[in-house]
Amino acid sequence: MKLIITTIISTLLATSLFAGNATEQSKLASDMRTMLSAVVDMQRAGFYSNKAGVKDAAKRLTSSLDSLITTDATLYLPDDQANAGKFAKKREKMIKMYAEDLIESVDNNDFEEAIEDYSQILRQCTSCHSRIRNKTWK
Question: Of 73, 75, 76, which Cα lies nearest the Cα of 128?
């Protein structure tokens, strides 16, 4: 009887741990889709000189960045990428800085600087994805 109860408790505990990890990954995936949408909207608004659209997209981008900080990447990344979580957290700070600078550049009508800020945002995203996903272009 003790063995059955112990087995049931162990199974429930393992299931709850797995579900917690899946929920965390699901939130991160959802936030990544939001960030991608914000970056695309930022570019689209920039093409049409829509200052409000660029600023709104930059704000949406920064509001989705928190899951890069709160998600424990060691739970789902392979052991050889254990430090990728630290790298992602650094990228989060840089993306936030460039997004805030982008808003300031748009407010000051400094479109060359705004384009540079957008480029830096893309560079931060790409560097993190290329490192974590470890894929090369062919």
Answer: 73
pLDDT, residue 18, reads: 46
Amino acid making up residue 17: L
End-to-end CA distance of the chain: 58
With the CA atoms of 104, 105, 109 and 112 taken in that order, what torsion angle do they form, in degrees rounded to the nearest 10? 180
Mean pLDDT, consecutive 10-residue segments, the chain of 138 residues?
Answer: 60 50 72 91 94 96 84 67 76 94 97 96 89 60
Taken in order 45, 25, 135, 90, is the CA torsion positive or negative?
Answer: positive
Which among 90, 112, 86 has a CA at the least distance from the CA of 101?
112
pTM of the model: 0.75
One-letter amino acid at 74 equals: T
Q: Which domains does the chain have, with CATH numbers?
A: 2-133 (1.20.120)
Q: For residue 99, count other CB atoms closer than 10 A to its CB.
A: 27
Q: Which two tokens stand for residue 63?
A: 């509001």
In total, the chain counts a number of residues equal to 138
